[in-house]
Amino acid sequence: MIRIFLTLLGFVTAFAASAQAQTVQRDWTPYEQNKQCMISENYFNPSLQMDGTKKWFIVDASIATTILKWYISGDQFLNEMEFPARERLAACFNGTRDCGLPRNDDIARDLDLLDLSDLPANSVSIAYFKNPPPESAVRYAMATVGDCFGSAGDGVYLDEVGLTEAALPIDICYRAGNAMFYRSSSKYRSEAPAMTDAQIAKYGDWGILAKNLIDQRFNKPDEEVTQCGVAPAELMPSFMQFYDDNGYGLLEDAEYVAAQEAEAAAAAQAAAEKQAREDEYLRKSKRERLLARNDYQRFGTLDGCQIAYSYVFGGINRDKLSFIVDPVPDSGISWALQFEKTQAAGQECPAMPQELGDWIAKQDPKLFEAYGAEEEFRNNKPNVWNDNDWKAFVERWMWRDQTFAETYVQGGNCQAAIWYSRNIAHDWSKFSQAEEDFVGLARVFGRWGAPDKALCAAIPPDVLPLARKTWERHYNQVMREKARQQAEWDAANRREAARRAEIDAAYDELLNWKPPYQKQSELRCYNVEETKYGTRQRCFSD
Fold first, then answer.
1. How is 352-411 classified by DSSP, letter by letter?
2. How far apart are CA 478 and CA 110, in angstroms?
3. What start and end residues bound the annotated signal peptide (predicted)?
4. Is the pTM of this model over 0.85?
5. Rounded CA gap, 356 and 235, in Å?
6. What does 458-494 look like in DSSP terms, one character per residue?
7. Strand, coil or helix: 184
8. What angle do CA 521, 523, 527 make, to 5 degrees?
């Protein structure tokens, strides 16, 4: 096999694994990097220890990666190994698993200890792990990680350990890894190449390692890794079928990729233009609202210092809808901090720097917005008296959105929008400004106990399609549940009525029971009192 030596920080690291004791901790991965090794040197995470040494670890604690870590760390392996990895490795020495390691109950007991600091220097474990892993353990680990053991893996080929090179899109191996990691999830199984339960159990370590490594690659966008690397040979037919069935071949077609990129660019451009139009509309409508105020509505009871402070605060936090001109000068920020202190202490307003005064003079007073005015309006329940006041409050809240009035009726658009806003709408990152405003308003009304009817004064069209759909699904579900309950109640009532009728009939029969009439033996005679001569009988004469 062809192998290429890698360099790190200008130092070339080469090694020759042998059965001799490892006396020096290696500073870098000693294996010769190649495409048949799943674990790139970029996916080892170094950390500096208290004693100045480096500790390398892989985001995976399977037995295979632990054996590779043993091979890399040399005689420092036992000190560096975390307890979960030691606990798994112990299974290889107590006979629970066959990992290519000899059975040794003493080593197994040592590895199961939470703290190894009390192990004596002549411990069998310390002596054993000063040697590199045996060839049989290397072969076992290679079945999961691939050819990562440099010359220690000479003579062992991928096909011997059940692996093969997989020049497939990395997404396929990632989906397989997720299915193995979340093996009980039908969702991940359905999104991955077809695999049996036996295959998932057999190649689980490979799959979990693939998922962990690809997760790291996804978190390193500068790393251009697009192919799987190595995968179990037994799974390759399924992987190739998944490749064909899901159109991965198109991703390698230059014309198709170019068309997709052009389509994405066009969609991004259209979204940007739509956002620009919405921003322009919002800015225009906000300007009209601000200009329509009188001086009292604009400034209220604020004095000059409070107005200046509002300008500075608005300038620091300005957004695309702000009418503040130019950035706030540094002296303005310093002055605002002084103003906060004097205001808190009830002292006079500090003198305003000339630079700040010049900056404020550039601002249009007709577009002035007091600091915290919008927040105060939205956070405090208004002092309202009737439905018209609530309606005005709603219209002010939704001033920057295109809205329409709607009649509040059972099952209507307004009720659907309110129900959706309070029960379904949670993905704020996908909301338009109108959706965000209305969802917030509907929830505030619910918290205040305000009349829902007033919300119908300003319904944004943006909220209706999904609201209508989710409401109808909810409404149909509620109706089905009511029908089911009603059917159950009707059946129960019928059973109860039948049972009651049965009980009543039995009760009536018992209540009205009389002993059957016993006829005399002589049809026209009847008995009279007893005498010493016996029973006398009288009879009717003809």
1. PPHHHHHHHHTS-GGG---TTHHHHHHHS-----SHHHHHHHHHHHTTTS--B-----TT
2. 61
3. 1-21
4. no
5. 71
6. SB-GGGHHHHHHHHHHHHHHHHHHHHHHHHHHHHHHH
7. coil
8. 65
